[in-house]
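Extended Data, panel c. Modelled sequence:
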Amino acid sequence: MSGIIEQPRFSCALAAQQTVAAIPNAHPIVHAGPGCSSKAHEFAGTGAGFQGEGFAGGATVSCTNTSEQEVVFGGERKLEDTINGALKVLNGDLFVVLTGCTADIVGDDSIGVAKRFAAQGYPVVGTETAGFKGNTYYGHNVVLREIINQFVGNAEPNVDAKLVNVFSVVPFQDPYWRGDLIEIKKLLEKIGLKVNILFGSSSDGVSEWKNIPNAKFNLLISPWVGLDAVKLLERKYKTPYLHYPVLPVGAKETSKFLREVAEFAGIDKNTVEKVIANEERIYYDYFLSKADFIAEFRNSLPSELFTVADSTYAIGVSNYLVNELGFIPKGIYITDSPADKYKEELNNILVSKGEEFTDTLTIEYDGGLIQEDIKNKIERPEKTVILGSSWEKFLALDLKSKYVYLSLPLNETVIVNKSFVGYDGGLRLFEEVYGSVFKSSDSVVRGISGSR
């Protein structure tokens, strides 16, 4: 990534401090200049629906606050002092060192420093996450890799036939990550699996990470983010993985997802079909109860769709809206800057969900270019819903279209445990999309408060 972009959708690699903060009882330790850590939190914490600092985020992150002295003479001693202090005063099961640009430019061996503490028996992991090396997704993948290599280590697997490790949405970068992971875990447990969900309030924290080698298989629910991690686990522990590239939203995709997981895991088909039958019965009871609403408001309801989000959410949500609610996709914009080797596959995944998606995909992280493209393509603004960030909200208001919050930055809503995953998530998205008909532009203050 180079050059100047308008309306950024992600932060730099150092924002992976949020990945660490999402592990219960884990602490990030940042080796960077003053302000780097707080800016990462502002974007991916505050700007993700005001999700708070949590156990070890925000203003509580340990940081070396490197200055000119460390630039000239090196900052390894200061990093050692910071780690020592953190180990003395903080109650944590895992400490992950993350570096900013300054530390990596001057050549501080942060990983070496962390390994010296690990050799003494302390749960310390070192990473290199300088902002110039990549974005949030890059940093997330680095943290996954180094925790597996340095902390989980070369354990001898004791395989539990019902245990699965789940890799999916990126904590905080997906503003609905907490609710999403809770819902994914619930779905998998309903068909009889034990689940290491690894992040969030439904995780047992560091003990789940130590338990990773004992899983029967790894499950990746994402088009590409996390693929390196499951491949590493396959090499390291001989653990097979199932790659399910589409986030399951709504009844059709969620039922398909459960069947594929069950087949891969060797779960009895009758058991799974009973779960699916019960979930679909409840889902369609709610779904059909809105038939009179759709009939009454049919002239006001949106029917055309623009989606702006990362690849996991953009594909999963658009698939649901087109194939269950009958929307016409006009533009699907993927903002997570995937490597070139993934781009063709992303288009194939989307088009496999219906010929309606042909020629709708654009991979672009510059929000200004996205908005210009939407303006050029939109034909019936009053019949259009735009799903995206706070930036897309104001575009929708200008165009007199409907809008739904979906992706970062989100500075004008509060998110606790909302999710659009699964059967319940599909119904919630139904509410959001059709409820947008009643949103009034007159009631909203223009401008993105607190955006960076």
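Residues 269-288 form the longest helix (20 residues). This feature is highlighted in the accompanying rendering.
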